[in-house]
Amino acid sequence: MAALRRLTQYPPRGMAISTLHTSSCASAKQHYKMLVLGGGSGGISMSARMKRMMGAENVAVVEPSEMHYYQPIWTLVGAGAKTVASSGRSTASVMPSGVKWVKSKVQEINPDTNTVRTDDGTEISYEYLLVALGLQLHYEKIKGLPEGFEHPKIGSNYSVQTVEKTWKALQNFKEGNAVFTFPNTPVKCAGAPQKIMYLSDAFLRKTGKREKANIIYNTSLPVLFGIKKYADSLWDIVKQRDLQVNLRQNLIEVRADKQEAVFENLDKPGETKVIEYEMLHVTPPMGPNLVIKGSPLADEAGWLDVDKDNLQHKRYPNVFGIGDCTNLPTAKTAAAVAAQTAILNRTISKILKNEKPDKKYDGYTSCPLVTSYNTVILAEFDYNGQPLETFPINQAKERRIMYHMKADLMPHLYWHGLLRGLWGGPGPYRKLLHLGMK
């Protein structure tokens, strides 16, 4: 139960290679030229870049977690195609050498005094601040959770504590409803809630249980996927595989002891429907990091308020942001972070020279939509929701090669490229294609 309580607290985030960093748990007041908040994909990749730009001794990263996870692979962990152990490495091993690791949780940010306070009372001052705190999972906003995860037949691919419960529920499926949800909030990796549905369908077919299964995808959205080109292909798959998709349905309660899920019709507020389940995959409501939300750095909704072109804060010019914690109007994915790293690196280098940022982020993001154990639709698009594709083929079509890129190649590039600050930039898959042609 203690592990499940942590689901409502600071989420684990998702390295490079080095053990020769320094760490700190507290002590006297500290000062750094560049202070990075968060040791996830954005924080670690940018700290590696900042080390090269201004020297390791001038960079510190505040991150409480001992483990760093490559979260995009959790979709495959929940379907039994990868192990949870393969998704994680120690934070110590990914922290750039020489960079100070402050092993604490950020408690307060005061941009007016250029200081940050950690949960152990340490005050750290900075010349420049880079915020990469990710977003917050809110299982507790669904009545009956997170305590419902103590029961069988329910899982969630969004937490290291519950992703293996998804696989167990899928393996133990006998007959009845397999239900998959999408919340009425912004989410990270908006394709993941339906990827596990396609994989579950494939698993149940492979094990001869599909005829006894009714697969239901209840999403709060008015569409299956936000980009029409890819949504059209997904609707074809839904029809071909006899999957039931219900739009504008939001999970508000889980009665795990009765195996019941309660949904509200968002088009008719107050109207609810109870569905019995044999398997339930929950995508939790999500929201801005609470420390950012309580600081002057937030916009009205609580997200880090940055310029969408150069990732510099709109009101505090010595503050920058990257990834899920920001209010950038694009999908929150690891591919988006990869694209943002080069832009942000360029922005900071210009600011250090008292020059105006000259590179613009176009909102590039990507979602490899896993549709089976060997196929993927690779969605790539920009701020305007327009496809921004890498390969000279129709990426809206299911392809085996895209699955292998998602399952095998991208994790390698993440650990050994992105987190070392060596790979990324606008259209990271384009760089991959370029490398493959050399």
Automatic annotation (TrEMBL):
The species this protein was found in: Seriola lalandi dorsalis
UniProt GO BP: sulfide oxidation, using sulfide:quinone oxidoreductase
Family: Belongs to the SQRD family.
Keywords: FAD, Flavoprotein, Mitochondrion, Oxidoreductase, Quinone, Transit peptide
Pfam families the UniProt entry points to: Pyr_redox_2
Single GO term (MF): quinone binding
Protein name: Sulfide:quinone oxidoreductase, mitochondrial
Catalytic reactions on record: a quinone + hydrogen sulfide + glutathione + H(+) = S-sulfanylglutathione + a quinol; ubiquinone-10 + hydrogen sulfide + sulfite + 2 H(+) = ubiquinol-10 + thiosulfate; ubiquinone-10 + hydrogen sulfide + glutathione + H(+) = S-sulfanylglutathione + ubiquinol-10
PANTHER family: SULFIDE:QUINONE OXIDOREDUCTASE, SULFIDE:QUINONE OXIDOREDUCTASE, MITOCHONDRIAL
FAD/NAD(P)-binding domain boundaries: 32-335
Signal peptide stretch: none
Functional summary from the UniProt entry: Catalyzes the oxidation of hydrogen sulfide with the help of a quinone, such as ubiquinone-10, giving rise to thiosulfate and ultimately to sulfane (molecular sulfur) atoms. Requires an additional electron acceptor; can use sulfite, sulfide or cyanide (in vitro). It is believed the in vivo electron acceptor is glutathione.
GO CC term, one of those recorded: mitochondrion
Enzyme Commission numbers on file: 1.8.5.8
Needed co-factor(s): FAD
SUPFAM superfamilies for this protein: FAD/NAD(P)-binding domain
Compartments, record wording: Mitochondrion
Lineage: Eukaryota, Metazoa, Chordata, Craniata, Vertebrata
InterPro entries: FAD/NAD-bd_sf (IPR036188), FAD/NAD-binding_dom (IPR023753), Sulphide_quinone_reductase (IPR015904)
